[in-house]
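S.,

Sequence below, as promised.
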Amino acid sequence: MENLTEKFIDYIRWDRELSANTIESYNRDLKQFNEYLNNSDIEDNIFDISKTTIITYMIDLQKKGRAPSTISRNLASLRAFYQYLLNEGLTRKDPTANLKSPKQEKKLPSILSLEEVDILLKQPDILTPKGTRDKAMLELLYAAGIRVSELISLNVEDVNLDLGIIVSSKDYSNERVIPIGKLCIESLDIYIKLMRHKLIKNTEEKSLFVNYHGRRLTRQGFWKIIKTYTKKANIDKKITPHTLRHSFAAHLLQNGADLKSVQEMLGHADISTTQIYTKVNKRRINDVYKKAHPRA
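The prediction came back faster than expected:
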């Protein structure tokens, strides 16, 4: 099998030009499977491996405590390997055919408490153009639950402070009108009227949020911004730009918003994607019970 594995690795490296990480994963998974075959005294050669052997291997990984995602990746590696053997005419059967990957539980998103959100949003220095911009961005992310890609794509014309809404869209067929609250409106009003003109270099610039060069802020630029404020706020959680979106949804549901409305505000095509936040709330209730109940 080792010789075939080397040929397969050469194929995915030079012919398919897969990433170094993917190649390393495939190579590691195939070596691990080969070790399993040798240690299990399975006499079948690699061309005669049965579906039962693959299933038994998956069970063995499970018994060893491997995560469903790891088992799924191992199965994917074997599937790719046997597909290669089939295409090369080296075998006539694929023991991985029609095998389903183990069901993976959706990881519950990390959210901030109301107090943590408040601390984070107080970090920018609102006496400076940059701080005022950052305050407006953080307030908007939490107030509207939009993605970072949507945030940096906003133009000034997409904000209507009189109506208290923003219009977020990838195209005209996917337009979302999202309400924003009083504190967010105040932050945006100060930024747009008093500070934005100090950051832009060209009066024709349409971007709502710009960088030091007066051009549209990038995703990478915002990552650096939120990383800085997370450290400054001294919050012992991993906070990403998406954390405020998660917190937005979870807090709405905690305070009685209906699932369908939250789905529409988040722009989820399937309501099952939004339902993950109801599990977050159940986890929170369970944590509160354990901490507060004298017999918990």
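The beta strands are 159-160, 165-169, 175-179.

Coffee later?
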